[in-house]
Amino acid sequence: MFTFPKRLNLALTPTPLQYLTRVSAELGVNLWVKRDDLTGSTLSGNKVRKLEFVLAEAIEQGCNSIVTCGGLQSNHCRATALLGAQLGLKVALVLRGEEAGAADGNLLLDHLAGADIQMYPVREYRDSLGQLLNRAADKLKQQGCQPFVIPTGASDGIGIWGYIAAARELEADFSQHRIVPSHIVSATGSGGTQAGLTLGAHLLGWSTKVLGMAVCDDEAYFKAKVRSDMRDWYDRYQHMLSDSVDVEQCRIHVNDHYIGPGYAKAEHDVFETIAWLARTEGLVLDPVYTGKAFHGLVEEIKKGAMAGATDIVFVHTGGIFGVFPQRDQFDF
Ligand SMILES: *Cc1c(COP(=O)(O)O)cnc(C)c1O
Protein backbone atom coordinates (compact mmCIF):
# COMPACT_ATOMS: atom_id res chain seq x y z
CA MET A 1 0.00 0.00 0.00
CA PHE A 2 2.89 2.36 0.69
CA THR A 3 6.63 2.05 0.59
CA PHE A 4 8.85 3.79 3.07
CA PRO A 5 11.56 6.21 2.01
CA LYS A 6 15.20 5.74 3.05
CA ARG A 7 15.50 4.93 6.74
CA LEU A 8 18.30 4.31 9.25
CA ASN A 9 17.93 1.55 11.80
CA LEU A 10 18.36 3.48 15.07
CA ALA A 11 15.41 2.72 17.36
CA LEU A 12 15.03 -0.55 19.22
CA THR A 13 11.76 -1.67 17.74
CA PRO A 14 9.23 -3.19 17.96
CA THR A 15 8.60 -1.78 21.42
CA PRO A 16 6.31 -3.73 23.79
CA LEU A 17 2.59 -3.09 24.10
CA GLN A 18 1.90 -3.60 27.77
CA TYR A 19 -1.41 -3.99 29.61
CA LEU A 20 -1.78 -1.97 32.82
CA THR A 21 -3.52 -4.48 35.10
CA ARG A 22 -3.98 -2.49 38.30
CA VAL A 23 -4.66 0.89 36.70
CA SER A 24 -7.22 -0.67 34.33
CA ALA A 25 -9.02 -2.30 37.25
CA GLU A 26 -8.97 0.90 39.27
CA LEU A 27 -10.32 3.04 36.43
CA GLY A 28 -12.70 0.46 34.94
CA VAL A 29 -11.14 0.50 31.46
CA ASN A 30 -8.72 -1.57 29.38
CA LEU A 31 -5.60 0.52 29.30
CA TRP A 32 -2.48 -0.42 27.34
CA VAL A 33 0.83 1.37 27.01
CA LYS A 34 2.99 1.35 23.88
CA ARG A 35 6.45 1.49 25.42
CA ASP A 36 8.16 3.95 23.12
CA ASP A 37 10.15 5.05 26.14
CA LEU A 38 12.09 1.85 25.37
CA THR A 39 13.32 2.80 21.91
CA GLY A 40 16.80 2.97 23.45
CA SER A 41 18.36 3.86 26.79
CA THR A 42 19.84 7.30 26.26
CA LEU A 43 18.14 7.58 22.86
CA SER A 44 14.78 6.91 24.45
CA GLY A 45 11.45 8.17 23.26
CA ASN A 46 9.51 9.13 20.17
CA LYS A 47 12.12 11.35 18.53
CA VAL A 48 14.30 8.39 17.58
CA ARG A 49 11.56 6.99 15.34
CA LYS A 50 11.30 10.29 13.47
CA LEU A 51 15.07 10.73 13.28
CA GLU A 52 15.43 7.36 11.53
CA PHE A 53 13.88 9.02 8.49
CA VAL A 54 15.13 12.59 8.94
CA LEU A 55 18.78 11.66 9.42
CA ALA A 56 18.59 9.23 6.49
CA GLU A 57 17.43 12.16 4.36
CA ALA A 58 20.25 14.38 5.70
CA ILE A 59 22.87 11.77 4.82
CA GLU A 60 21.26 11.13 1.43
CA GLN A 61 21.60 14.85 0.69
CA GLY A 62 25.31 14.62 1.48
CA CYS A 63 25.17 16.55 4.74
CA ASN A 64 27.69 15.88 7.49
CA SER A 65 26.32 18.10 10.23
CA ILE A 66 22.96 18.85 11.84
CA VAL A 67 21.39 21.99 13.25
CA THR A 68 18.27 21.69 15.35
CA CYS A 69 16.43 23.49 18.12
CA GLY A 70 14.19 23.17 21.15
CA GLY A 71 13.79 23.99 24.83
CA LEU A 72 16.71 23.72 27.26
CA GLN A 73 15.48 20.27 28.29
CA SER A 74 14.47 19.18 24.79
CA ASN A 75 14.29 15.40 24.38
CA HIS A 76 14.55 15.90 20.64
CA CYS A 77 17.82 17.85 20.96
CA ARG A 78 19.29 15.23 23.29
CA ALA A 79 18.35 12.39 20.92
CA THR A 80 19.83 14.33 17.98
CA ALA A 81 23.04 15.14 19.87
CA LEU A 82 23.61 11.50 20.79
CA LEU A 83 22.66 10.16 17.36
CA GLY A 84 24.98 12.70 15.77
CA ALA A 85 27.82 11.35 17.89
CA GLN A 86 26.80 7.79 17.00
CA LEU A 87 26.75 8.52 13.27
CA GLY A 88 29.78 10.84 13.16
CA LEU A 89 27.75 13.96 12.35
CA LYS A 90 28.55 17.29 14.00
CA VAL A 91 25.52 18.67 15.89
CA ALA A 92 24.73 22.31 16.70
CA LEU A 93 21.81 23.01 19.05
CA VAL A 94 19.88 26.27 19.29
CA LEU A 95 18.21 26.20 22.69
CA ARG A 96 15.43 28.33 24.17
CA GLY A 97 16.27 29.65 27.62
CA GLU A 98 19.41 30.11 29.66
CA GLU A 99 21.19 27.68 31.87
CA ALA A 100 20.87 28.36 35.58
CA GLY A 101 23.49 26.45 37.54
CA ALA A 102 24.93 23.09 36.55
CA ALA A 103 23.59 21.38 33.42
CA ASP A 104 21.01 18.73 34.35
CA GLY A 105 18.80 16.20 32.58
CA ASN A 106 18.88 16.38 28.79
CA LEU A 107 21.15 19.42 28.76
CA LEU A 108 23.81 17.47 30.62
CA LEU A 109 23.57 14.73 27.98
CA ASP A 110 23.80 17.32 25.17
CA HIS A 111 27.09 18.51 26.65
CA LEU A 112 28.38 14.93 27.07
CA ALA A 113 27.51 14.18 23.44
CA GLY A 114 29.78 17.05 22.39
CA ALA A 115 27.09 19.15 20.74
CA ASP A 116 27.82 22.81 20.00
CA ILE A 117 25.24 24.46 22.28
CA GLN A 118 23.91 27.98 21.86
CA MET A 119 21.35 29.27 24.36
CA TYR A 120 19.14 32.29 23.79
CA PRO A 121 16.72 34.22 26.00
CA VAL A 122 13.11 33.06 25.50
CA ARG A 123 12.01 36.23 23.73
CA GLU A 124 14.90 36.32 21.27
CA TYR A 125 14.39 32.64 20.47
CA ARG A 126 10.68 33.13 19.91
CA ASP A 127 11.08 36.21 17.73
CA SER A 128 13.99 35.12 15.58
CA LEU A 129 14.34 31.33 15.57
CA GLY A 130 14.74 31.23 11.77
CA GLN A 131 17.67 33.64 11.88
CA LEU A 132 19.28 31.82 14.79
CA LEU A 133 19.11 28.51 12.88
CA ASN A 134 20.58 30.15 9.77
CA ARG A 135 23.37 31.64 11.85
CA ALA A 136 24.21 28.21 13.29
CA ALA A 137 24.14 26.68 9.80
CA ASP A 138 26.38 29.46 8.42
CA LYS A 139 28.88 28.88 11.20
CA LEU A 140 29.09 25.20 10.24
CA LYS A 141 29.52 26.11 6.56
CA GLN A 142 32.41 28.41 7.48
CA GLN A 143 34.02 25.41 9.15
CA GLY A 144 33.70 23.52 5.88
CA CYS A 145 30.68 21.46 6.98
CA GLN A 146 27.51 20.76 5.05
CA PRO A 147 24.63 21.36 7.51
CA PHE A 148 21.10 19.95 7.48
CA VAL A 149 18.49 21.83 9.52
CA ILE A 150 15.88 19.79 11.41
CA PRO A 151 12.78 21.68 12.59
CA THR A 152 11.47 21.58 16.18
CA GLY A 153 10.81 18.02 17.30
CA ALA A 154 11.70 16.66 13.83
CA SER A 155 8.03 17.27 13.09
CA ASP A 156 7.66 17.72 9.36
CA GLY A 157 6.70 15.66 6.34
CA ILE A 158 9.86 13.54 6.67
CA GLY A 159 9.75 12.95 10.43
CA ILE A 160 6.13 11.85 10.52
CA TRP A 161 7.12 8.66 8.69
CA GLY A 162 8.39 7.54 12.10
CA TYR A 163 4.87 7.31 13.45
CA ILE A 164 3.37 5.98 10.24
CA ALA A 165 5.84 3.13 10.75
CA ALA A 166 4.82 2.94 14.42
CA ALA A 167 1.16 2.61 13.36
CA ARG A 168 2.13 -0.41 11.26
CA GLU A 169 3.94 -1.83 14.27
CA LEU A 170 0.85 -1.22 16.42
CA GLU A 171 -1.26 -3.12 13.90
CA ALA A 172 0.87 -6.19 14.56
CA ASP A 173 0.56 -5.60 18.34
CA PHE A 174 -3.22 -5.36 18.08
CA SER A 175 -3.55 -8.60 16.17
CA GLN A 176 -1.17 -10.35 18.57
CA HIS A 177 -3.26 -9.26 21.56
CA ARG A 178 -6.55 -9.64 19.67
CA ILE A 179 -7.72 -6.12 20.43
CA VAL A 180 -9.35 -3.40 18.34
CA PRO A 181 -8.63 -0.24 20.32
CA SER A 182 -11.14 2.59 20.23
CA HIS A 183 -8.50 5.18 21.16
CA ILE A 184 -4.80 5.87 20.79
CA VAL A 185 -3.70 8.72 23.04
CA SER A 186 -0.37 10.55 23.13
CA ALA A 187 1.16 13.82 24.25
CA THR A 188 1.37 16.39 21.49
CA GLY A 189 4.11 19.02 21.57
CA SER A 190 5.23 19.75 18.01
CA GLY A 191 2.54 17.61 16.37
CA GLY A 192 4.62 15.09 14.43
CA THR A 193 3.79 12.05 16.51
CA GLN A 194 0.10 12.82 16.25
CA ALA A 195 0.36 13.55 12.52
CA GLY A 196 2.11 10.23 11.89
CA LEU A 197 -0.29 8.18 13.99
CA THR A 198 -3.33 9.91 12.49
CA LEU A 199 -2.07 9.41 8.97
CA GLY A 200 -1.01 5.84 9.74
CA ALA A 201 -4.47 5.04 11.09
CA HIS A 202 -6.00 6.56 7.96
CA LEU A 203 -3.70 4.65 5.58
CA LEU A 204 -4.38 1.41 7.44
CA GLY A 205 -8.13 1.98 7.44
CA TRP A 206 -8.58 1.97 11.21
CA SER A 207 -11.66 3.36 12.93
CA THR A 208 -9.51 4.03 16.02
CA LYS A 209 -9.57 7.64 17.22
CA VAL A 210 -6.10 9.15 17.56
CA LEU A 211 -6.21 11.77 20.30
CA GLY A 212 -3.42 14.25 20.99
CA MET A 213 -3.21 15.71 24.48
CA ALA A 214 -1.79 19.20 24.01
CA VAL A 215 1.09 20.12 26.35
CA CYS A 216 1.72 23.70 25.23
CA ASP A 217 -0.46 25.27 22.53
CA ASP A 218 -4.24 25.10 22.00
CA GLU A 219 -6.48 22.90 19.88
CA ALA A 220 -6.63 25.29 16.90
CA TYR A 221 -2.83 25.54 16.81
CA PHE A 222 -2.33 21.77 16.82
CA LYS A 223 -5.06 21.05 14.30
CA ALA A 224 -3.34 23.44 11.89
CA LYS A 225 0.15 22.13 12.70
CA VAL A 226 -0.79 18.46 12.28
CA ARG A 227 -2.55 19.25 9.01
CA SER A 228 0.43 21.17 7.68
CA ASP A 229 2.82 18.30 8.53
CA MET A 230 0.50 15.95 6.62
CA ARG A 231 0.40 18.27 3.62
CA ASP A 232 4.19 18.55 3.66
CA TRP A 233 4.35 14.74 3.73
CA TYR A 234 1.96 14.47 0.81
CA ASP A 235 3.83 17.06 -1.26
CA ARG A 236 7.13 15.29 -0.73
CA TYR A 237 6.00 11.71 -1.23
CA GLN A 238 2.87 11.63 -3.38
CA HIS A 239 4.90 10.09 -6.20
CA MET A 240 5.60 7.07 -3.97
CA LEU A 241 2.00 6.45 -2.93
CA SER A 242 0.24 3.78 -4.91
CA ASP A 243 -3.29 4.61 -3.73
CA SER A 244 -4.58 8.11 -3.86
CA VAL A 245 -4.42 9.52 -0.35
CA ASP A 246 -6.47 12.53 0.67
CA VAL A 247 -4.83 14.05 3.73
CA GLU A 248 -7.69 16.54 4.04
CA GLN A 249 -9.91 13.56 4.93
CA CYS A 250 -8.05 12.68 8.14
CA ARG A 251 -9.85 13.82 11.24
CA ILE A 252 -7.57 15.42 13.81
CA HIS A 253 -8.54 15.18 17.48
CA VAL A 254 -6.89 17.39 20.10
CA ASN A 255 -7.69 17.88 23.78
CA ASP A 256 -6.20 21.11 25.15
CA HIS A 257 -7.75 21.11 28.64
CA TYR A 258 -4.69 19.82 30.46
CA ILE A 259 -1.93 22.19 29.36
CA GLY A 260 -1.79 23.75 32.83
CA PRO A 261 0.46 26.80 33.32
CA GLY A 262 2.40 26.24 30.06
CA TYR A 263 5.14 24.30 28.32
CA ALA A 264 7.24 22.33 30.80
CA LYS A 265 5.17 23.70 33.68
CA ALA A 266 2.69 21.42 35.39
CA GLU A 267 0.26 21.67 38.29
CA HIS A 268 0.86 19.61 41.40
CA ASP A 269 -1.76 16.99 40.42
CA VAL A 270 0.37 16.01 37.41
CA PHE A 271 3.27 15.20 39.76
CA GLU A 272 0.87 13.19 41.92
CA THR A 273 -0.27 11.19 38.89
CA ILE A 274 3.36 10.52 37.94
CA ALA A 275 4.13 9.22 41.43
CA TRP A 276 0.91 7.14 41.50
CA LEU A 277 1.68 5.43 38.19
CA ALA A 278 5.29 4.77 39.21
CA ARG A 279 4.26 2.99 42.40
CA THR A 280 1.21 1.25 40.90
CA GLU A 281 2.70 -0.07 37.66
CA GLY A 282 6.45 0.70 37.81
CA LEU A 283 6.05 3.06 34.89
CA VAL A 284 7.80 6.45 35.01
CA LEU A 285 6.35 9.48 33.17
CA ASP A 286 7.72 13.01 32.89
CA PRO A 287 6.11 16.33 33.83
CA VAL A 288 6.61 18.01 30.42
CA TYR A 289 4.84 15.54 28.10
CA THR A 290 3.77 12.08 29.13
CA GLY A 291 2.77 12.89 32.72
CA LYS A 292 0.61 15.78 31.60
CA ALA A 293 -1.00 13.75 28.82
CA PHE A 294 -1.57 10.68 30.99
CA HIS A 295 -3.01 12.80 33.78
CA GLY A 296 -5.42 14.34 31.27
CA LEU A 297 -6.42 10.88 30.04
CA VAL A 298 -7.09 9.67 33.60
CA GLU A 299 -9.21 12.77 34.30
CA GLU A 300 -11.19 12.23 31.10
CA ILE A 301 -11.81 8.60 32.06
CA LYS A 302 -12.93 9.62 35.57
CA LYS A 303 -15.28 12.23 34.09
CA GLY A 304 -16.89 9.57 31.89
CA ALA A 305 -15.68 11.21 28.69
CA MET A 306 -14.25 7.92 27.42
CA ALA A 307 -17.51 5.98 27.89
CA GLY A 308 -17.88 3.28 25.23
CA ALA A 309 -14.13 2.90 24.84
CA THR A 310 -13.03 -0.68 24.18
CA ASP A 311 -9.28 -0.70 24.57
CA ILE A 312 -7.31 2.50 25.07
CA VAL A 313 -3.64 2.67 24.03
CA PHE A 314 -1.46 5.33 25.61
CA VAL A 315 1.78 5.92 23.72
CA HIS A 316 4.58 6.42 26.23
CA THR A 317 6.77 8.77 24.21
CA GLY A 318 9.69 8.82 26.67
CA GLY A 319 11.05 11.90 28.42
CA ILE A 320 12.51 10.38 31.58
CA PHE A 321 15.40 12.87 31.74
CA GLY A 322 12.80 15.64 32.16
CA VAL A 323 11.96 14.27 35.62
CA PHE A 324 15.28 15.18 37.20
CA PRO A 325 15.36 18.96 36.68
CA GLN A 326 11.89 19.13 38.33
CA ARG A 327 12.74 16.90 41.29
CA ASP A 328 11.65 19.56 43.80
CA GLN A 329 8.01 19.31 42.68
CA PHE A 330 7.49 15.79 43.99
CA ASP A 331 6.46 15.06 47.54
CA PHE A 332 6.78 11.60 49.01
C1 LIG B 1 8.63 15.57 21.81
C2 LIG B 1 7.90 14.75 22.79
C3 LIG B 1 6.51 14.55 22.70
C4 LIG B 1 5.68 15.26 21.68
O1 LIG B 1 5.82 14.71 20.40
P1 LIG B 1 5.59 15.66 19.17
O2 LIG B 1 5.77 14.77 18.01
O3 LIG B 1 6.65 16.73 19.26
O4 LIG B 1 4.23 16.24 19.27
C5 LIG B 1 5.89 13.73 23.60
N1 LIG B 1 6.59 13.13 24.58
C6 LIG B 1 7.91 13.29 24.71
C7 LIG B 1 8.59 12.62 25.85
C8 LIG B 1 8.61 14.10 23.83
O5 LIG B 1 9.93 14.26 23.97
Automatic annotation (TrEMBL):
Pfam families xrefs: PALP (PF00291)
One GO MF term attached to the UniProt entry: D-cysteine desulfhydrase activity
UniProt domain Tryptophan synthase beta chain-like PALP: residue ranges: 10-318
Cofactor(s) needed: pyridoxal 5'-phosphate
Positions of modified residues (N6-(pyridoxal phosphate)lysine): 47
Classification via SUPFAM superfamilies: Tryptophan synthase beta subunit-like PLP-dependent enzymes
Domain of life, source organism: Bacteria
Active site residues according to the UniProt entry: 74
InterPro entries listed in its UniProt record: ACCD_DCysDesulf, D-Cys_desShydrase, TrpB-like_PALP, TrpB-like_PALP_sf
UniProt KW keywords: Pyridoxal phosphate
UniProt similarity note: Belongs to the ACC deaminase/D-cysteine desulfhydrase family.
PANTHER family linked to this entry: 1-AMINOCYCLOPROPANE-1-CARBOXYLATE DEAMINASE-RELATED (PTHR43780:SF2)
Protein name per the record: D-cysteine desulfhydrase family protein
